[in-house]
Design a protein that fits this description.
The chain is α/β, with parallel strands linked by helices. It has 2 domains: about 15-225 and about 350-430, Rossmann fold, CATH 3.40.50.10540; about 260-340. The chain is built from 18 helices and 11 strands. The protein has helices at about 15-20, 35-45, 75-80, 95-105, 130-135, 155-160, 185-205, 215-225, 230-235, 270-280, 285-295, 300-305, 305-320, 325-330, 345-350, 395-405, 410-415, 425-439, and strands spanning about 25-30, 50-55, 85, 115-120, 140-145, 210-215, 250-255, 260-265, 335-340, 360-365, 370-375. Helix 2 (about 35-45) crosses helix 7 and helix 7 (about 185-205) packs across helix 8. The longest helix has 24 residues, at about 185-205. The two termini are about 50 Å apart.
């Protein structure tokens, strides 16, 4: 089902029931940067009510690049879609008590759906697992740390500590090359989500809460081990080397066409390999090469071992064809391939991946305007949650404190007077404009 791209998508109730199985679950998020906000957003897109706690003025990552012309962070807006946001002075005991009440189910909070917090900080003693569990024994507390011992780390230092930059980049690179994608942050965010849902399942079955801890460095080490990199390092006398854009263990690399376009080609299976040779007219040439070398290129390991000579043969074919000619030949095959797109090119011309993909819809983001953004990539019963705008600083402070904790207008006024909470920035701006217009 598609919607008018000019109108932001509003999910019908029956869609929300299918694509939002976590409706009724309330999660308090105290976090910043990538992994924990990604986890919270993933849960929000599946229907959870995720309430993000921010200090007065907003969290430090609210100004992280890239920025819209207004100064609004596109990075922050991308990682916090569909959440509610409250602004509280976490330096004050009263502010932290408000947050504690939200977590444990104080005031009007429905205790059956609360008692879940996700965080990447243990800065405040009264917001630790031990302190919160004293008030709510079935608490689920999900915590991201940098290292297992609680030490600090970020994606790029974890990259450095786990070997990946030394096998990333061009074959002739002399220095470590960090990857642009913060892969460990992304993977950690999804591990946090998995751990939280597993703990919630356990609580439903037993009534018991628990703390879930995920260390960013452990995520990288586990991945290096699961993919065999650490076992290879222990058992092989030959260290892993940089291989540029070649795909380790199989045949895959990039090629340039006569008109300067670049493609990535991957032949994982014998069928892929036969299709590649047939499409390029190199079947007989490569067969003769195999006979001369005494190898069988139907074997993946042999295609990898002789990747350079095979790659040069194929490079000659691509260099004498335009992209349109190469595309016409490749589209007749089952081969795995793609043109290289820049982010700019993808946004401007990649209609198939943006405007024609049900994952994407237009959102109106305060401070940014309207643009195409992703919803949840999880499709359930044929439906998926569309994207929602990210909250402004303090946008839901009063709403949450009224509905979840039962605070009165007088209570809220007193908290504002004492600096524990503030009027949301957008409300203050409206008041400034109103007073200016009536003067």
């Amino acid at each position: 089902m598609r919607h008018d791209p000019a109108v932001p998508h509003e999910p019908r109730e029956w869609e929300a029931r299918r694509s939002q199985p976590l409706r009724g679950m309330r999660i308090i998020e105290i976090s910043s940067y990538v992994a924990t906000p990604l986890s919270g957003m993933t849960l929000a897109q599946l229907g959870a009510d995720v309430i993000r706690i921010e200090p007065v003025g907003g969290a430090p990552d609210r100004t992280r690049l890239p920025l819209a012309d207004s100064g609004t962070s596109l990075y922050w807006s991308g990682l916090n879609k569909g959440k509610r946001a409250i602004e509280v002075d976490l330096r004050s005991e009263r502010g932290r008590r408000l947050v504690t009440d939200l977590i444990v189910g104080g005031g009007r909070c429905d205790g059956r759906r609360g008692g879940i917090v996700i965080s990447n900080s243990e800065r405040h003693p009264d917001l630790t697992y031990e302190a919160l569990r004293a008030r709510r024994p079935d608490l689920i507390h999900v915590l991201l740390t940098g290292r297992r011992d609680g030490g600090t780390a970020v994606d790029y230092t974890v990259q450095a500590a786990t070997g990946f930059p030394l096998v990333t980049g061009p074959e002739d690179a002399a220095r470590p090359v960090n990857h642009l994608l913060p892969a460990w942050d992304v993977a950690a965010g999804l591990y946090l989500t998995t751990g939280l849902l597993a703990a919630e399942r356990h609580r439903l079955l037993t009534g018991e809460g628990q703390q879930v801890r995920v260390a960013l460095e452990d995520v990288a080490l586990a991945t290096a081990g699961n993919l065999g990199y650490l076992a290879e390092a222990q058992l092989s006398s030959t260290p892993r080397e940089r291989i540029g854009n070649h795909v380790y263990g199989t045949f895959g690399r990039d090629f340039t066409t006569a008109d300067g376009e670049r493609l990535m080609i991957v032949a994982l299976t014998p069928r892929h390999w036969r299709d590649l040779l047939a499409a390029t007219g190199l079947t007989d040439v490569v067969s003769a090469l195999a006979s001369a070398l005494g190898v069988d290129f139907a074997e993946e390991s042999e295609r990898y071992r002789h990747r350079k000579v095979l790659g040069e043969l194929l490079a000659g074919w691509f260099e004498t064809r335009t992209f349109a000619q190469a595309e016409a030949a490749l589209r007749t095959t089952r081969l795995l391939w793609s043109k290289y797109w820049s982010f700019t090119g993808l946004a401007a011309d990649g209609a198939r991946l943006l405007r024609e993909n049900p994952l994407m819809a237009q959102v109106r983001q305060p401070g940014v305007g309207r643009y195409w953004a992703p919803g949840s990539p999880v499709v359930m019963a044929g439906e998926q949650s569309p994207p929602e705008a990210s909250p402004r600083v303090g946008e839901h402070t009063e709403e949450v404190l009224r509905t979840e904790l039962g605070l009165s207008s007088r209570d809220l006024a007193e908290l504002r007077e004492d600096g524990v909470i503030q009027y949301p920035t957008h409300v203050l701006n409206k008041e400034v404009h109103h007073h200016a217009a009536t003067r």
